[in-house]
Specification:
Length: 540
């Protein structure tokens, strides 16, 4: 008899697990397909998916990410159906009568739950992010299709801070430039937006050519607009030019720009090397630029203090400025005399200027590799160099594209972000503001990573808790209908998902302790309900 009792749990375990897995596989398959189709509704409604094959491909790709949501609910449903049937058929009671405790009956269910947790961790941390990436690339990789779809719908196509609208579009495959595809646009309007989404510059053109290049996994767009009229909102200038050809633009890659699309290993690497993240790189480059400009002004001030002169040059002339002070871009002399500027032309001719208001600033041609300057004289006098007499007076003159000899200008953008922040110590407000912005971006990234990791682990644990909860409630509420029992398991599970999501947002917002408590409180609630139901089960 003892041998039969020892053998019985294994027979019972195989029977329970076999029934569970059969119902679980069926319900999981149905749920996955329903949720995957639901995920495709938004891109379908937005007309982002064109063609039956691409839609089918998107739904097939979506089935894997949707498993992370389907598995917990399918497990709860399967446990409810199977254990309720075993209870109403008195099989669970029969096992209890021969000495098999409810704890031993639930043991294979808990073991299956542990396997589900491992599967969920593998899915959420390694597999699902790759499929999210494939889904995004399925929507964004075909830039030609997206461009054409936008123009055909009469809405602007946006890439980065540039919006492009056209009356008509024609596709030209295999263009002579070596691009993969060329798009020819007619009746073009383009706008450059600032950080707040306001238009800073807008351009109209009779025609534009858009070349699309592929370089490995990256896609670049090169635009050339012809017969253009540009309006600069900050200066109010209207400029007509035959051709405008801005720098090639990299099409955003969501796999590089969102932690949701990253595996656990990628996120941990990014947490240790945050300056590889796009928004942090942007803030780091801004800090490098501010540091470089600060260093340039320090060197200019040292030159003036030591030499009393400053030489600037371009291809046409050399400007020799006699001054010994530089404050906020304004050049002056310590004795109050006007600042003199001698312009020596390439042919040897020279002109002498004198002005009390001489301003130097970096012009639009400056870069991290080379600073160029603009020198402005207000209300200046033209001086006869032989006699020293004033021969003419003018209101304003500006020299642009000037360089300064002897400036050390290493490219600071190649330095690690920690070294940049170290060099920023004791610098001016502009540099310190950029440091704070960089710190904020790094903190925000790390909070995003912590939030994402914890949400994935919490969702993984939910699978086991819902499986055990459905099983326990099915045995406790043996007289209720299976769907009623499932509702009792479903309602707290929905609350759990809401708390996981809400806690993740709180954590991402910077309230780490509160966010962590809220995020895990849903699982704690499920554990409490399981404990309460199990207590009722063993008492009755």
């Amino acid at each position: 008899m003892g041998g039969n009792n020892a053998l019985m749990p294994w027979l019972l375990y195989r029977y329970i697990l076999g029934e569970l897995l059969r119902v679980f596989a069926l319900s999981c398959g149905v749920l996955v397909m329903v949720i995957a189709f639901g995920a495709a509704i938004k891109p379908l409604a937005a007309n982002d998916l064109i063609g039956a094959w691409q839609t089918a491909k998107y739904i097939m790709l979506a089935t894997i990410p949707m498993l992370q949501f389907a598995l917990p609910f399918a497990a709860a449903f399967a446990a409810t159906i199977v254990l309720h049937r075993l209870t109403t058929d008195h099989e669970i009671q029969a096992a209890a009568v021969v000495g098999i405790s409810y704890r031993r009956i639930l043991l294979p269910i808990v073991a299956l739950g542990a396997v589900l947790v491992a599967v969920m961790v593998l899915l959420t941390q390694s597999i699902v992010p790759k499929f999210w990436t494939l889904m995004e690339q399925n929507l964004t990789a075909d830039v030609t299709r997206a461009f054409r779809a936008s123009i055909d719908r009469g809405v602007p196509f946006q890439i980065g801070d540039i919006q492009i609208y056209a009356d008509r579009i024609v596709e030209q495959p295999n263009p002579p430039t070596g691009a993969e595809t060329r798009l020819i646009l007619f009746g073009v309007a383009a706008a450059e937006l600032d950080a707040d989404g306001r238009v800073t510059t807008d351009v109209t053109a009779r025609q534009a050519v858009v070349d699309i290049h592929r370089r490995g996994n990256d896609t670049y767009i090169q635009i050339e607009m012809r017969e253009t009229v540009a309006y600069n909102g900050s200066t109010g200038e209207l400029i007509e030019t035959p051709v405008i050809r801005p720098a090639a633009m990299l099409v955003p890659n969501p796999a590089r720009d969102h932690p949701m699309l990253m595996t656990r290993r990628e996120m941990l690497h990014l947490r240790e090397h945050p300056d590889e993240y796009s928004s942090v790189m942007e803030a780091k480059d801004a800090l490098a630029e501010a540091l470089q400009q600060s260093e340039v002004w320090r060197q200019l001030d040292e030159k003036l203090t030591a030499q009393g002169t400053l030489e600037l040059f371009d291809d046409q002339r050399v400007l020799i400025v006699e001054a010994d002070r530089l404050a906020r871009g304004k050049l002056s002399t310590s004795d109050g005399r006007p600042v003199t500027v001698r312009s020596v032309e390439a042919d040897g001719a020279s002109v002498l200027y004198a002005s009390a208001t001489v301003v130097i600033g970096q012009d639009g041609g400056s870069s991290l590799a080379q600073s160029t300057f603009a020198l402005t004289l207000e209300a200046y006098d033209l001086i006869d160099e032989k006699t020293g007499d004033v021969i003419n007076q003018r209101a304003h003159v500006e020299f642009v594209g000037l360089e300064v000899r002897g400036l050390a200008q290493p490219d600071l953008s190649t330095l690690p972000y920690k070294e940049l922040m170290r060099r920023a110590e004791g610098r001016g407000d502009r540099v310190l503001d950029r440091v704070e912005k960089l710190k904020d971006r790094i903190t925000d990234l790390r909070l995003q990573i912590e939030s994402r990791l914890q949400r994935r682990y919490a969702l993984s644990l939910t699978a086991m808790l819902l499986l055990v909860l459905g099983s326990t409630l099915a045995m406790v509420l043996r007289d209720a209908l299976p769907l009623v029992i499932y509702v009792w398991a479903f309602v707290p599970s929905i609350l759990d998902i809401i708390l996981i999501s809400g806690g993740g947002h709180i954590l991402k917002g910077g309230q780490v302790a509160l966010g962590t408590v809220v995020l895990w409180s849903g699982n704690a609630l499920l554990a409490v309900i399981i404990a309460f139901a199990y207590r009722r089960l063993i008492r009755n």
